[in-house]
Amino acid sequence: FLFPVSNLCGKCRPRDTDLLQPSLNFLYWSLHQTTPCSQQRAVAVLLSNVSLLELLQKVLECTWLWSPPSRPAYLSSEDALLCSGWLLVASLLLYQHRYNTEVHQTLSVDLTEVLNAVIFRNKKPILLLVSILQFLRAVLRQNFSSSLLVIVGQNTAPSATQPQPSSLQDTALHPLAMQQVFSLVVSLQNLLVHKDLLLSQAVVACLETLVEYLYVKNQDVALHVASQPWHRFLLFTLLSGGQKSFLQPEVLRLMTLFVRYQSSNIISQKEISQIVQEAAEANLAELPEATSSALHLFLCQV
């Protein structure tokens, strides 16, 4: 079914949401729920379909066009389609890189628009933010150098008519700028305060990947970002309310991040001891899988 469904998508317009959204979901499911051998073939089929990629290009661009001043509280059919489009593209980026699949048509994305979608949010539904964060994480993991993707934006092609990078740090972090990095980090912190499980998982994963990217580009910048005092306030905020346990997946993953980058002003030996004590007293067999995985990574890092 992969071949006819992808061909059908290529014949649609972005406004054909009732047909496109479940079709893109089927393509996404087909990439993830299969064996590695079948997965490699599936990626090759999708990336060889130029009309499908052109359709995905239009869907991504609709993210910036379909932005009414007052969005409905529920997930509209248009927003659902955008979620499916961003998630499918993020997956194609991941698997194209993994299998080094030939690319017949590139996708173009404005980096400034992507960052602004997270930084300013503009009443975007949580699921759409999660989908865009998945995409952003994928391009960060590939160092903005995927053969499937062309990154455009104000910082991606300095010229004589554009402002040059304001500092050596901006040059090292290219195509990101320092101001964008700090704005993005603050926005990710603010999104964590919402305490939505799905959003928290996506935000922490994106923050982890961002700091990893920064560490490769400029270790001083990465360590500076990881040691921002606001992170400690964020941890106390996440631990407030009904569940004060450190054994929450997003808290454990944040703690792991701070231990990895030696942010002793954020997480102290006392907090590390508290986590180990809580883990020792907990019934590990009853912990949710996400918590068990996060705890394992934390203890390995310690």
UniProtKB/TrEMBL annotation:
InterPro entries: Immune_Signaling-Apoptosis_Reg. It comes from the Eukaryota. GO terms for biological process: meiosis I. Coiled coil: none annotated. This is MEI1 protein. It comes from Vireo altiloquus. The gene is Mei1.
